[in-house]
Amino acid sequence: MSDDQRSIDDLAAAYALDALSADERARFEALASPEARAEAAALADTATLLAGDAVAAPASLRVSVLDAIGREPQLPAEATTERPATEHASAQPVALQPVSVESQSLDARATDPNRVSARTSDGPGPAERRARARWRPIRAVGAIAAGAALLLGGVALGSQLGGDSRQEALGAVVSAADAERTEVAMPDGSTATVIWSAERGQSAILFDGLSAAPEGRTYQAWYIDADGPESAGTFEAEGGSTAFLLDGALSAGSAVGVTIEPDGGSDAPTTDPILVVET
Amino acid sequence: MTALALVSQPAILRLVETTLEQCLVRAADGDQRAFAEVYDATSSRVFGLVLRILVDRAQAEEVAQEVYLEAWRQAKRFDPDRGAAISWLLQIAHARAIDRVRASQSQRDRDARIGVRDTAVPIDLVSEQAEVSLEAARARKALRELSDPQRQAIELAYFDGLTQTEIAERVGAPLGTVKTRLRDGMVRLRGILGATA
After folding, report:
1. Which site in A74, A198, B120, B149 is 20 to 30 Å from A108, CA atoms measured?
2. What is the 3-state secondary structure (H, E, C) of A68-133?
3. Hey, what domains does chain B have and what are their CATH numbers?
């Protein structure tokens, strides 16, 4: 990590405490590493525990708040949250954005009716939710109902109305003329399908039932070639059917790998891969 | 404090927060009654925090109103996957209160106000408390476990709204030292208090 990056990342705790000047805050928001953003989010969460004792607000406040919201428009969801959100796409390793996949249409399921589902039924707990707090999954079901689904190789990918470049890119890989795929059994009993297009130099992984990474850990994808592994982004799982377009370029003959890394990802793999597929 | 109290209280909070998050998500769709439920469940904590930072009751009411209006406007941007509703609201409240401190007060006014608060105000606050939060008691206990310089730096930042540069000037320490105190202190607090907001 460069000294410049370190000097920015060192602001995480002060950022979490709102103890930065406006300039410093803007600098952190623009340039902080994913690890520092995750740390700031976690520490901001902790800071709220300091908030102190409750004090009854005057009844007049309730009246005026509820009166005011009746006249106050709500902002759309997609714009960047001013605060307290801290998510940005910039430095490595990139946090991959999941695209939820209609599970019924996963061909793995359709062609192998005997396969036992490994998905977990429990929803994510608060700790897990915080661990995943760096991005917002895209829910595709409604969009499919709206007629915007792409039916590609037996996999229906939701494409939100209005378009989403990540989903379009994912669809382009899956539907590429030279697309190849390999299905792998994961250690937890779930199934992963690696799909790649050498022509496009991109790949994607579809997970069906991959359970969440242990607390404080994240999944990280890698492109591995003669020069060694290069991060292809971090991602989280929650047991459902989810697809990720990997970050970076797939070069000829590279392998695609997945490891479990500390939250925020690593510069190089620190554990044995749970998935390796040679392209 | 017994280990049981430390374990069981966050479990109760989680239950409460689930409901709050659902209400906030409904409010995001324009449901004003759901937003009223969010207000009722959180207003004493939001007001308690804002009042503690601003001290002045009239200003605290104004800022608390701003906090809820911002929460209403931004409700669609609240994502339950990113954390608890109370944490989201308290972060907005903190940022708004600190902005007000910095915008409306000269350094001198602020110093004077902080001096006043250190003596007289806590008594007022106690008399006004609707409830003594177990969570606040835990946080106070956790703060006492930090080193004095760490606790001082965090309190000057969180409650007094000083920037890290102002803290360095105030305590006469290099900026780098203050950064380290803030970071080490917060990481330690997180270790003591756990990850549950």
Report:
1. A198
2. HHCCCCCCCCCCCCCCCCCCCCCCCCCECCCEEECHHHCHHHHHCCCCCCCCCCCCCCHHHHHHCC
3. 10-120 (1.10.1740.10), 132-197 (1.10.10.10)
